Amino acid sequence: xxxxxxxxRVEKALQHYECCRLCEHDCxxxxxxxxxxxxxxxxxxxxxxxxxxxxxxxxxxxxxxxYLSGCDLRCSFCIAEERAFNPQIGVPLTADFLxxxxxxxxxRGTRTLQWVGGEPTIHLPAILQAMADCTxxxxxxxxxxxxGSTEAFxxxxxxxxxxxxxxxxxxxxxxKEIAGIDHYVPIVTRNLQLAKSHPADLIVRHxxxxxxxxxxxxxxxxxxxxxxxETKFSxxxxxxxxxxxxxxSRLGQYLPVGAGNEARRFAMAAGLRVIx
Amino acid sequence: MKKVNFxxxxxxxxxxxxxxxxxxxxxxxxxxxLELLNKIGLGxxxxxxxxxxxxxxxxxxxxxxxxxxRACDE
Lengths: 276, 74
What we know:
The complex is a heterodimer. By secondary structure, chain A is of the alpha/beta class. Helices cover 33% and strands 17% of the residues of chain A. Chain A has a 9-stranded mixed β-sheet with strand order 3-1-2-4-5-6-7-8-9. In chain A, helix 1 (6-14) packs antiparallel against helix 4 and helix 3 (95-107) crosses helix 4. Chain B is mostly helical. In chain B, 45% of the residues lie in helices and 11% in strands. Chain B is built from 3 helices and 2 strands; from the N terminus they run H-E-E-H-H. Chain B has helices spanning 8-12, 31-39, 45-63, and strands at 15-18, 24-27. Chain B has a two-stranded antiparallel ribbon. In chain B, helix 2 packs across helix 3. Chain B is elongated and about 45 Å long. Chain B starts with 7 loop residues before the first helix and ends in an 11-residue tail after the last helix. The chains are: A alpha/beta, B mainly alpha. The A-B interface holds A 49-55, 58, 61-62, 65, 79, 91, 96-97, 99-101, 104, 106-111, 238, 240, 254, 257, 276 and B 1-6, 10-13, 17, 19-21, 23, 25-31, 34, 46, 49-50, 53-54, 57-58, 60-61, 66-67, 71-72.
C-alpha cells in the first residue's frame, strides 16, 4: 500500500479491530466489542519486553526489539511460552511509550527497531498507530511467522524496511501437528512472494528442529532454491525443547552438535545466500 | 510526555541455558554478555562478528554526538 498517508494507513488498519482479517485464521471478529478470535487478542497491543539485542542477524544489530504478547500460532516448542500466547501480558503500546523507548535506544546506538512476538501481525493497527506519532524511528524490522493475510501485507507495504520471515515448517503435516494450523506452506510461500515484491529487504529465517531435517529443512531449501535463490537465508540452531516440546519424541531433543554448520553448508552448496 | 516505566530487569535480561552436553544457549544476548564470553575464550566467530557490529554502532552514535556513555550503561 504505497502512496497513502500514514493516517490513511492507520485508519484502514484500525478497521480490522472491528472485523479482524489480519491473519489467515480469518476470524472476522469484532475485537473492540469483546469478541475474540484464535489469538485471543483484544484491540490493545501489549509489550512484555523491550531491549537491545545483538544475537540477531549481523546486519540488524544492535537491534531494539519490542516483544508483543499474543500469537496466532501455537507452536509446541515456543520458547516464549505463556508470554507468546497470552495477549493480556505487558504494558500497553502507545506512541508515548514507543517514543521514549526509541529515544532510549537511539542513545545507545541501535541500528534497527524490531517488532517481534508472539506475533506482531495481530497487533498491526496498534503498531502502525504508535509509529505514526513517533519521530526518529530507526529502520523498522518486521519479524513474523508470515501467517498474515494479504490485507495485512498490503498494510505493511511501505511501512517496514526489513522483513524477517520465520519459515518454520517445510510441509503442511508438520505445521498441523506442531502449530495446529492448516495450509501452512501455501500461505507462507504466498506471503514470502508478496514481501519480496515490496520495497523492503527480506531475510528468510529457519530454526532447525530436531528430527525435521528431511521433512522441513530440505523442502524449505528446495523452495528457496526454486523461488527465492537470491534472498538472504538465515539458519538458526539455538533450538531448545521448551513449553510442550517434551511431549514429542523428536521435539523433546536438542539438536545434534554441528547441525547448524551442516545445514549452512548444505544450503550454501544448494546456491542459497546464507547469512549469519 | 508521560514518563514510561521500563523494567531495568527486563531490559538487561539475557537468558542463558546450558544444555545436557555443555552447550551454552543464549537468548536476548546483550553486548556485555558477548564481551564476557569472548574474554573467557568462548567467543566463536559468530560472537566476534557481532562484537564488531556493536563497536561500529557505538562509533557511529559517538560520531553523531548521540552517546555519552557506553552502549548499555544505565
